[in-house]
Each structure stands twice: as structure tokens, then as C-alpha cells.
Amino acid sequence: MAKSGGTAVTGGPGFKKAKVPATHTGLVRQARKINRALAEVYPYAHPELDFRNPFELLVATVLSAQTTDLRVNQTTPALFAKYPTPEGLAAANPEELEELIRPTGFFRAKAKSLLGLSVGLRDNFGGEVPKTLEQLVTLPGVGRKTANVVLGNASDPKTGEPFGVPGITVDTHFGRLARRFGWSGSDDPVKVEQDVAALFPKSEWTMLSHRVVFHGRRICHSRKPACGACPIAELCPAYGEGETDPVKAEKLLKYEKGGQPGQRLKPPADYPGQPAPAGAGR
User: Fold this and answer.
1) Alpha helices of 186-268 — where are they, by DSSP H?
2) 19 labelled catalytic
């Protein structure tokens, strides 16, 4: 029996993987078992973007497309120091904005989105980030994934009250694991969201998203899943797609599970790992 981050792991050669249940009821039961197991493994799961208010989270989430959260976290301090409000960002010089966000990749398209959403916030919402999905997705560059991140994790800057709108955030990690777990067979993020929503109560959607993404980044990687070091191996229908040898699998673990820094420069107080160095990965 191997251990991953202090959690006992059942796996290794000869281990039998779980089967995808044939009925919806069976799939619901298995999916909820996986969610409960992930909650035990990642009780500290959280958004891995640094932010202080809904506007910063919205901007950071748009920037996070096709790059790492660490790279975004290294980029946003200078961005928010120069443009701390929607009104300020709406009036930004496009070339200067592009240069500030260049490290995140696709900087021209992202700059266009940031300018557009900032104008939208200024002109249509009084400079405030709206609290409904329907309103958020009217902003340039803001799709369902970004909207769900903001609604599930932002708080009102005036009252401190969480937006508290449950949502399933289907990024590349979530989509990959949803297919491996048998929760969805689709590559379409909207269909994956619908399929997974049918398996869980709304109250679980936001934290489920964090847990699944955490697991995808740390253990259940795209190219080489660390199956032999996976704490939920006995529940996984895709066990065996990756390295099953416990010793070899342990070497594949990332971030705090592998004894490495996380992606946030300023992680929550209860995060068990170390903050990422401000200049790492540039």
C-alpha cells in the first residue's frame, strides 16, 4: 500500500479498477462516493488564482485561458496596480495592456476581451461585477466557465457576502476527469456541465469543481496519471491509464502532493503547501 500526501492508496499491479455503473442511480452513487473521497483528500481545495475582489477574479479568470494559474498570478499584480478598477482598465492603452499581459499568451485577444468587459462593466453595470450568469456572459470574453468561477467564489466588496451562486467549472482538467470517471462522454464543456449537474446537488457544484480540478492538476494528469499513488484509485473506472507502480507514480505527483509549491503567490491560510515564488516560471 502506497501513500500520497499522507493518504493511504490502494493500487499497484493486479489492482482491479472500478466499473462505470450501468444505471443512472448507480452512477450517482459512485460519483458522490468519488466526491466525498476527494473532499477528504483536498479539504483545502480553492481557486488557484490570486484575487481581492470580483473584478480581479473576473480578469484573472479570463487571463487563465491556455496558461497556468501561476503565470496569471505572476502577471496580475502589475496589471491591477496600474488598472485597479473597470473604469481604469476600460480607458487603458491597448498596446500598454498587451505588454502587461504578454506572459499569459494570446495577449492580443485577451487584451481585447479585458477592454471589452471593462467597458461593459462601466457602461452597463455601474462598474460592478454582476451576480448572475445571464448578465456575466454578456461581457466580451466571458463564457459559462468564467462566469461560474466568479459566481461561486467572489464576494461582494461592500458587504463581504459571497455571491454564493453554485456552478460547475468545466476547464480542461474537469472535462478530462469527468470522462475518466464516466460522468460524461462528451468533449463539449456545456454538455459536460449538464451531465455532471445531473449527478450532484447544486450545493456541491462549486466545491466539486475545485476538488476535481485539484485532483487533475496534482495526480490525475493528462499524459501520465499517477494511478499507483492515487488515493481514490479503488473508485476510478480509468485506473491503469497511467503509471500503476506506486514508487514510480509517487514521482509524478505535483504541487503540495509532490512536496512542491502551489500556484498561488498568496494562498489561503489553511493551504498545506508553500506559496509559489513570485518569479518562478517566467
Assistant:
1) 189-197, 205-218, 246-250
2) no
